[in-house]
Amino acid sequence: MKTITALLTAAALTLGAAPAAAAAEEPPLDPAKLAAAIADLPNDEASGALLQVRGADGCWQGTSGVGNVRTGQRVPQNGRFRIGSMTKTFVATAALQLVVRGDLELDRTVQSYAPDLLPAEYPPITIDHLLTYTSGLPGIRIDHKDPVWFLEHRFDTWTPRQLFDLAFYQDGNVFPMMFDPGEQQRYGNIDYLVLGAVIEKVTGRPYGDAIRDGIIKPLRLSATTVPGTDTKIHGPHARGYEEQNGSFVDITEANPTYQWSAAEMISNAPDLDRFLVALMSGRLLPPAQTALLFEVPDVPLYNGKGARAYLGHGLARLAVGDVVFWGKTGDRPGYNNGMAATKDLTRRAVFSVNTLHMGGAEQPAVTQKIVAAVAGLA
Description:
Layout: H1 4-11, H2 13-17, H3 31-37, E1 46-54, E2 60-65, E3 81-82, H4 87-101, H5 110-113, H6 127-131, H7 147-153, H8 160-168, E4 169-170, E5 173-174, H9 190-203, H10 207-219, E6 241-244, E7 247-250, H11 260-263, E8 266-267, H12 269-280, H13 287-293, E9 316-320, E10 323-332, E11 335-342, E12 348-355, H14 365-374
Antiparallel strand pairs: 1-2, 1-12, 3-8, 4-5, 6-7, 9-10, 10-11, 11-12
């Protein structure tokens, strides 16, 4: 399935490549459009959805569909969900906090911090390259959103070393780099898997501790966890399903170690909004590091057919019509999500859609409607 980030980028690639201009006035927030965006669930694509909008432009929240297809229980408004690649924004924040402390330097190389992590044949790769997806490292060539593979391996426990071996080696041979470091931007998990390993190397503790100590505890994010090998979603939540031949396979429980520091976390809409506000307003980082969140490298997208980079140091630039949001998207089987805000925080949104088919070529219609409604386009 295409990521939501890719969906938005494809809709406004020219905006991403254009020089910075004065922000256009946002269309007014329309509660009727927001309600319509998540209406008529469940359907063939999704069992349920939740949406929360906050900010000076107005506040709205709602749910649709069912959180449990067997009992008919509604989707809980503050329900927890697997946030997928939104984990990367937490990891980027933790890494930048280590930069502030002097434990990491953006221009120092991965090889200087963790000499045995990457193949010796690879060129110097900096922490900045990892944060901005410009390392050129090859990714893992397993379609982990293929239903057959996922259902067979959903409870497996993976170590970071196993993940790196899958990415960098095959039959004793080293996979070549995708491109020279710093020359292009290629979104994927590998940069943040390596970043998680570097965080552990310099702190001597699990990478999740840096997130707990630097973000979760100070912000009192009571629904946000770094689950490790825990397969359950604790607390209220909508269950995730994969529809197969008219039957619903419950896929809520899964071991998230294959996603590790790239996509393993669990949270809910109130926590994610609180995190995004604190991050973008400078409560978690000093001004210099906060500015990096919005600093997008001036390089082309890998295989982007002329498109330019759109990802900064933990946040993505998401242009929808005349409105520019900053945030991150993420999905796991059964959960398709996003968090985004205008830079002045006047309009912020968090949503989660319970998809019924993992690995598809397109986003479900409800996701596309949510994006348009939040931007005032629907």
